[in-house]
Amino acid sequence: MIGYTPTTTDAPRPESGAAGIRVFRYTKRALELVWRTSPWLLILLVLLTVVAGVLPAAIAYVGARIVDAVVAAIAIAQHAGHAGGYMLYRPLLAWVALEGLLVAAASGTSRMTSLCQSLLRIQLGQRVNVMILEKALTLELTHFEDSEFYDNLVRARREASVRPLALIMKTANLAQNAISLISYGALLIQFSPWAVTILLLAGVPSFAAEAKFSGQAFQLFRWRSPATRMQTYLETVIAREDHAKEVKLFGLGPLLLGRYRGIFDKLYGEERSLAIRRDAWGFGLGLLGVMAYYGAYAWVAIATVLARITLGQMTMYLALFRNGQTAVTSSLSAISGMYEDNLYLSTLYEYLETPVAPPRGTLPAGPQPQDGIRFERVSFTYPGADAPALQDIDLHIRPGQSLALVGENGAGKTTLIKLLTRLYQPTSGRVLLDGLDLQEWDETALRARIGVIFQDFARYQLIVGENIGAGDVRGFDAPARWQEAAEKGMAAQFVEALPQGYNTQLGKWFRDGRELSGGQWQKIALSRAFMRSEADILVLDEPTAAMDAGAEAEIFSHFRALMHNRIAIVISHRFSTVRMADQIIVVDQGHIVERGNHAELMAVGGIYAKLFSLQARGYQ
Ligand SMILES: Nc1ncnc2c1ncn2[C@@H]1O[C@H](COP(=O)(O)OP(=O)(O)OP(=O)(O)O)[C@@H](O)[C@H]1O
């Protein structure tokens, strides 16, 4: 079997569940959340809780009156024969009718509660998910690349959207049981205060065990999170269309499934051991409750025989005891459940409270508009990486110039673009646009200046037009602008030949979706970059790798014509493209090793000249 073993090194087992997290800290926040989601449903829920709390004691009381009425009626009948007639049964029937009504009310209350609950669950689920997604929009790219953070996000999404309601329902359940217990206590104390004490104490050991195991369950949940993430990922690979081709052809299916099973087996072992311990302790300690109940039973029965209480009272006390015990156990498990929900909710709030850098700059323009882009001694190391991806980069590109970046895979070309677009901050040095540090630029003003297409551009499962329009949100729905951009990006011709033109659904996730060829997708992405008609810096990271040679040549002549007084930056492994640039930079292991135009670099006879000749020879 293929062994992916989720070991404890995947995620350190956190210390005791209670440590560091103040239990019940989140109950108040969950209440606020529910209140903001729907105050009316919450108020209704509170009212129903009170009613549901009082009803059981009322039913038990009426039950006792029925038995006493029966006993009284039997006694009268024995003395007076059937002479009493209807009058004999009247009080009895009235009590029976009342109990019927109370039971009907209890059932109505419970239905209404579950209706409120379903409605709240739907609304809360939506609200929490929107909160999670809104937060996601404020995060930095580095957050998404951090696996621990990603775990938190997945956990928050998967679990926490149902937890706030669960917490509220348990709070309601607790309140309902507390009200019931007070009302039972009020009736039972007439029999003996000791009975009330026994009732309360019998549930305590179960509670202690339950609280302990809830903490352990949460630790397990956290610990297995990386493994669960691997499982989810394997599900995607095995069962999604974009991976299906390779999975089939390489025969990866059984191998991946084996790994999937392996993870399950490992996780199941842990789960099972916890479940068994939890239930064994639950059963053992639950026996205490049973003993307490039957002890009380004997006591009440003897008291009845000794005529200290009536037969009706006996049935009432027994019912109270039995119901009371259920109420104690269910309050205790509600408390331990709340503890668990609190722990889970802590992951939601941990995620929602992830610190994000405040909006950095505020300036909409730089002091030297004709200065263009400058890199000044820029170095950058990816978070968690040992070696810098870029080191001591100095670079200057003026408006109207084009720059090509050349270098081996992994040299640092894309990283340079990520710094230029402020997706990352330099570890040292600075990047300037129009004489102003990128960090001081207002985000929107900066984004409006730059149009960029990365090699791993997004393929949105939307219609063609929107795929192009995504390049500029203002033109997302504007067919005239789609068309204009598509012409610049060389996509117009094939798009117009599609059955529904710009309204054709792309991708396979939705009905009638069409798949495009690699080169066609690239043309769509290129058109997307051209949507930024006001952008004066256009960055294309291997934009034509999947295009045929004719298309590539045409795009670049087109591109140069459009780039008047703009800055064009191209990363390409095709030297036919690269040679057209005004300035060419060769990047090697994070350093700039050569710079100049094509003729200059050929004259130097360095890496560029070697690579160029190598490729040129291939075409001869
Ligand atoms: N998100 C990331 N986190 C950590 N390291 C990264 C990340 N992206 C890239 N790297 C590393 O940084 C180095 C430079 O990568 P970069 O993507 O800039 O190379 P490139 O020159 O664009 O390569 P290619 O020609 O293959 O596209 C590589 O060693 C890569 O492993």
TrEMBL record:
One Pfam family recorded for the sequence: ABC_tran
GO molecular function: ABC-type oligopeptide transporter activity; ATP binding; ATP hydrolysis activity
Domain annotation ABC transmembrane type-1: ranges: 43-340
Recorded topology in the membrane: Multi-pass membrane protein
Keyword line: ATP-binding, Cell membrane, Membrane, Nucleotide-binding, Transmembrane, Transmembrane helix, Transport
Alphabetical list of InterPro entries matching this protein: AAA+_ATPase (IPR003593), ABC1_TM_dom (IPR011527), ABC1_TM_sf (IPR036640), ABC_transporter-like_ATP-bd (IPR003439), ABC_transporter-like_CS (IPR017871), P-loop_NTPase (IPR027417), Type_1_exporter (IPR039421)
Location of the protein in the cell: Cell membrane
The name this protein goes by in its record: ABC transporter ATP-binding protein
